[in-house]
Design a protein that fits this description.
By secondary structure, the protein is of the alpha/beta class. The chain has helices at about 5-20, 30-45, 50, 85-90, 110-120, 125-130, 135-140, 145-155, 165-170, 185-190, 225-240, 295-305, 330-375, 380-405, 420-440, 440-460, 490-510, 515-535, 540-560, 565-590, 595-605, 610-625, 630-645, 655-660, 665-685, 685-705, 715-720, 725-730, and strands at about 65-70, 95-100, 175-180, 195-200, 210-215, 250-255, 265-275, 280-285, 290-295, 320-325. The chain folds into two domains: about 5-50 and about 340-715, no CATH class; about 65-315, Alkaline Phosphatase, subunit A (3-Layer(aba) Sandwich), CATH 3.40.720. Strand 3, helix 10 and strand 4 form a beta-alpha-beta unit.
Length: about 725
């Protein structure tokens, strides 16, 4: 996503569009497109994330890395009074929120240790079955079990290599040590299960070890009542550890797992010592300031010690992304608020998806009934058609409204405010769109909803995607699928609404007598969306760009009244992929510390490992296709689409064909949106979500277009009546 804040560039872009709108009808459209492309390219290169290079702060010569790994340590546990040592370390170092996502949704103690040592998401479910941590975990684990877990992880979807950290350090001639709980061996050991030293916490020197791991398990199985005393014990352990530190040591404090029986959470990440000054952490694996992952810990250790990161690690080193703004207390309150937002949205999302599906089902069932009656010559009352249009516009606004709601901290009330807030946004937007439709026609209402949704998401991308973080249809830092950029559902909503908005703008300008200007304006709109979606400094969505590019070219070909043949369709698809390839090459050319997942995937394609990613995405797609909520939406959408696209009576055209008669630009936009949804479904992981989200926006807008058709072509006997009856129909009519 874009973190661009260049106001002058945005103003220049607006002036450029104004000049294009003032061109004569016969003016060359290529000039405007070239200027827009150059401007967007300049924005990419000027993006702050594209210009800065970051590396982890190295240890001084002879320095060590000490990892204090505390199970389930959260920022809400840290305070100046109850944890003075942790508070001091956080105040003097760089801090962040740590996502500990491993293979499953819940990361137990063993999974956390294995993930830390692998630099990749590891599966420790077999070892975590007893819900033990610390000495209990070691007592319940034998060497044969560990060997089995290592082999199964290498063959699993993430192809993690537990012990990769120990292997890399031993290959560089460096030593490892485990202090305190013996379960730290799972993180420090190499692939053979070997560590160089194991010792108690008190009274022993750590010797020549370059990596020292201190495991603390006090918080793993405590309840709410005993947690404060357990947190105090953790701080005392950290205080003892600090007495063994030397000048030049780097200390990493990580809350490396979730609680044994609690829900997944965000945890503590601190980098202190050496030259880690007060600031906020970030890694290239998250791309968002303030967030790092457990898979980043091993690469951070290797970066600090000057050891090359092996290819089997997918995490990226931490770095200090920004100085701290204000006192530590304010930053920690912000982290606690972000953690609460992620936790509440995760819980609220389950019910919201059911509400979302129910709204779709009710709309599709009611609309299918009205359309079937229309096909039998039974026309709907104007008020009923107006209600269908209002509901359809509101349902189409629902995904965008869920993002817009993030501007209000509804999660502080525990999710109670979310539903009234979203309903208010949808109702207000639908009413405003209907007012536009009453003046210009249903096509204008559809265009207004599409433009508002696309504009909201584009603005969010330009601001660094704050509305997508922890949103119910966006990015969850706990699930850790994506921390920045354009996700699958975001892409589906953005691409569908952008294509429909472009078609609507072209239609409006044609009706105003400027058809060529309309084509240029549509091209500018889809080009802007393509860059924001696919460019690594902005959306970083390679699969989305590969889907939107061909769909955008198809729309431009149809708007220019070009004949669509198979050779042209294939050529358009090939040409549409070119921007995505440019984005991928650009990102791969960057240093590793600045690459997004696009550049890293290109590296996997070139050097091996890409099949693991592809296989994992195929499996995710299959799982989503069998999700009950998605299946219900697909079934009801298929019924509604059948009612829209098929002639429902003798001598009648299909309802959507009737509604789009005289509006070819919107018809072409619906074609392009369908193509984009199909390509997005095929090219993305969890692509089924893209198909569902595309349907959830496009089908309600198509139904809104048909609302006028439900009251058209009345028999003459229904059109006649007394004066009072006419007045009643006007009062109850659409407008």
């Amino acid at each position: 996503m874009c973190v661009g804040e260049d106001v002058e560039a945005e103003r220049t872009c607006e002036q450029l569009r104004d000049r294009e709108g003032a061109d004569p009808v016969g003016g060359p459209p290529g000039r405007g497109l070239c200027a827009t492309g150059l401007l967007l390219g300049a924005l990419i290169l000027a993006s702050p994330s594209a210009l800065r290079q970051h590396t982890a702060t190295p240890a001084t010569p002879g320095g060590r890395v000490v990892i204090i790994a505390v199970a389930d340590l959260r920022w809400e546990d840290v305070s100046a009074g109850s944890t003075p040592t942790l508070w001091r370390m956080a105040d003097q170092g760089s801090i962040g929120l740590l996502s500990v996502r491993a293979v499953g949704r819940h990361t137990g103690c063993a999974a956390g240790w294995l993930t830390l040592g692998a630099g990749n998401r590891a599966d420790g479910s077999e070892l975590d079955s007893g819900h033990e941590c610390g000495p209990g975990l070691v007592a319940a684990t034998d060497s044969g079990q560990l060997d089995k877990v290592r082999r199964s992880n290498r063959a699993a979807s993430f192809a993690a290599h537990p012990g990769a950290l120990g292997d890399a350090l031993h290959a560089a001639g460096l030593r490892t040590a485990v202090v305190g709980n013996a379960d730290g061996i799972l993180g420090a050991a190499d692939s053979r299960g070997q560590v160089d030293a194991q010792m108690d916490l008190a009274g022993e020197s750590w010797g020549p070890a370059s990596l020292v791991i201190v495991g603390v398990s006090e918080l793993y199985k405590v309840d709410r009542s005993t947690r404060p005393s357990a947190v105090a014990r953790v701080d005392r352990v950290v205080d003892v550890v600090t007495r063994f530190l030397r000048v030049g040591d780097v200390v990493l404090v990580v809350g490396f797992s979730d609680q044994a029986h609690g829900p997944p959470q965000l945890h503590v990440a601190v980098a202190s010592g050496a030259s880690w000054s007060p600031g906020v952490l970030r890694s290239a694996s998250t791309g968002r300031t303030g967030f790092v992952q457990l898979i980043d810990v091993a690469p951070t250790v290797l970066e600090i010690l000057g050891v090359r990161q092996p290819a089997v690690m997918v995490g990226q080193p931490w770095f200090r992304a920004a100085p701290r703004q204000g006192p530590l207390l304010g930053e920690l309150r912000h982290f606690v608020d972000l953690s609460r937002a992620a936790d509440v949205s995760k819980v609220t999302r389950r019910f919201f998806l059911d509400v979302f599906a129910a709204a779709q089902v009710v709309l599709y069932a009611g609309a299918a009934l009205l359309l079937w009656r229309w096909g039998r010559g039974r026309f709907a009352a104007p008020a009923l058609a107006a209600l269908m249009e209002f509901v359809a516009l509101g349902v189409a606004l629902l995904p965008a409204a869920s993002f817009a709601a993030q501007a209000v901290p509804w999660w502080r009330a525990g999710g109670v405010l979310f539903y009234p807030l979203v309903i208010a946004i949808c109702a207000t937007g639908a009413l405003a769109a209907r007012r536009v439709g009453c003046r210009f026609g249903s096509w204008a209402a559809v265009t207004a909803v599409a433009a508002a949704s696309a504009g909201l998401l584009c603005a969010d991308v330009l601001l660094g995607s704050p509305l997508q973080l922890s949103s119910l249809l966006g990015d969850s830092p706990i699930l850790a699928g994506r921390f920045r950029g354009v996700g699958n559902i975001d892409f589906a909503v953005l691409s569908t609404t952008t294509l429909l908005a472009a078609g609507g703008v072209a239609l409006a300008l044609r009706r105003a007598g400027r058809p060529k200007v309309g084509i240029v304006a549509a091209a500018v709109i889809v080009l802007l969306a393509l860059v924001l979606d696919g460019a690594p400094p902005f959306g970083a969505d390679l699969g989305g760009a590969m889907a939107l590019g061909p769909a955008a070219l198809l729309l431009m070909l149809l708007l220019s009244r070009g004949r669509v043949s198979w050779p042209r369709a294939i050529a358009s698809a090939a040409a549409g992929v070119v921007p995505a390839m440019i984005f991928a090459a650009y990102d791969y050319a960057l240093p590793t510390s600045r690459q997004s997942h696009i550049g890293r995937f290109v590296g996997q394609v070139l050097h091996g490992g890409a099949w693991t990613v592809v296989h994992r995405r195929v499996i995710a797609n299959i799982h989503q296709l069998t999700h009950p909520t998605y299946l219900v939406i697909l079934l009801m959408a298929a019924i509604a689409l059948g009612a829209l696209l098929l002639p429902l009576g003798p001598g009648r055209r299909a309802p959507l064909a009737t509604a789009l008669a005289g509006h070819p630009e919107l018809k072409f936009a619906f074609y392009a949106a369908a193509v984009c949804g199909l390509l997005g479904d095929a090219l993305n992981d969890s692509g089924a979500a893209i198909a569902i989200a595309t349907i959830a926006v496009a089908v309600p807008l198509a139904l809104a277009m048909c609302s006028n058709a439900l009251t058209r072509q009345r028999p003459q006997r229904e059109q006649r009546g007394d004066r009072s009856g006419s007045r009643r129909r006007r009062r109850s009519g659409k407008c």
